[in-house]
Hints:
Elements: E1 11-16, H1 20-33, E2 37-42, H2 50-54, H3 61-64, H4 67-74, E3 79-82, H5 93-97, E4 102-105, E5 111-112, E6 125-127, H6 128-135, E7 152-156, H7 160-170, H8 173-176, H9 183-190, E8 196-200, H10 212-219, E9 224-228, H11 230-233, H12 237-246, H13 249-262, E10 271-276, E11 279-285, E12 292-302, E13 308-320, E14 323-326, E15 330-331, E16 349-350, E17 353-355, E18 362-368, H14 371-374, H15 383-399, H16 412-418, H17 426-441, H18 453-461
Helix pairs in contact: 1-15, 6-7, 10-13
Bound molecules: NADP nicotinamide-adenine-dinucleotide phosphate.
Amino acid sequence: MSLLGTPENPLVVAVVGSGPSGFYAAEHLFKQLGSGVRVMMIERLPTPFGLVRGGVAPDHQKIKSVTKVYDRIAQREGFSFLGNVEFGTALPLDMLRQFAHAVIFATGAQTDRSLGIDGEDLPGSHAATEFVAWYNGHPDYRHLTFDLSAERAIVVGVGNVAIDVARILGRTCDELSKTDIADYALDALDHSRVKEIVVIGRRGPAQAAFSPPELKELSEMPDTDLIVAPEDAALDPLSEAWLKTSGDRDAAKNVALLHEYSQHAPQGKSRRIVMRFLTSPVAIHGSGKVEAVTLGRNMLVERDHGYLSAEPTGETEVMSAGLVFRSVGYRGVALPGVPFDAKRGVIPNSDGRVLNAPGGQPVPGLYAVGWIKRGPSGIIGTNKPDSVATVDSLLADLQAGTFGDTPASGGLEAALRANGVRVVSYSDWQRLDALETHAGERLGRPRVKLTDIDQMLAALDE
Ligand code: NAP
């Protein structure tokens, strides 16, 4: 038998998940092994691209154009897409391993972190991640409802997701109708009575996690004023000292922009986004639904290694609000049969090699990339070097002769179909893509998303 990883004896790699990190892993495998590798990409939904489709905001179409790169990867000989296949249920790990030498998990971080405060479960209190998935037409979230009848919404957290949520709430129907936002969300947001969106950061302006361009975009919205009070833009002495020494250019830019905005008078636009710092939600109140939030004032204190942490001062205020979105980070979910670090919400790994426990031993043939490997951080491009690093570990293992028997002859796809699974191929997805974009063309929109899995499968079977 010829060497594994050659065209005569190709390495077979399954990638579970079809977001950016999965595609970058596939790309690096093809780059290194050419026709010596076959990549099977397994995806739970009939549609690929993970958070590029289901997370990136609909008014950020330019960012979504990265899918053109993924399209090219999908055209490589030796690539197959197996959509509408759920890992763990339709496809248990044992079954998958019969068909692949190695498995790379690229499943991202599918759930949210909670605040752990009273009233968090009241109707009207939501995870920002759910709102994002809902307005992006993710099939699992299309049935959610958001009561947009109150005038004030509070967004907890000052990362880029919080900014996305605030911006979408601040957009007019006219602005949103030029995007690929889900139709039902467009309709609901058209009837929104939300006039004020208060975004609160538990630490100060220098510690905000959003990026300067995202902040700037908020200040340029056609029908929404960005309001920052001078006292919220001001730095405490600890942050001032940190900013001088840290060399963090994004933080310096954010601080400068916030200072600039704090000097602007509101222009009387129909909605407002108010940004506040050193503020945490202490409790959410209401009878049967969110009606108000107790906000606590914080101050910064220096912890180990110079980390500036928020400490309550004891000062509180009650703010009326009908909606609360907690936007305090995504969190990875355990996969059936795969080791999981519940504390960090990631698959334990060393350079992308899955470990049987945090700090434990490698599980031969299993790898992780992206947010399920490192946690929910960075932008889309951050996943490229991350996936390259994991694939390099895999290739080193290939060199070392780690991989066992050649997988079962006969395809995984045929085995799944024999089990009654309606496998969606990449060309199926391209048909769905064409249906969506044609429907959009008529309306001057990038696409009109199909959001229902049955509807997608029916369209394919027509
Ligand atoms: P993130 O950047 O980690 O921000 C989370 C925010 O939540 C931080 O402000 C954090 O404050 C705060 N937070 C955490 N726990 C909290 C608590 N208990 N109470 C109050 N605040 C709390 O996460 P994200 O916004 O979900 O974004 C995830 C990743 O996706 C990021 O890397 C982001 O840049 C990226 N993303 C990028 C874009 C874009 O490029 N346009 C859009 C969306 C998302 P502390 O700093 O005090 O912990």
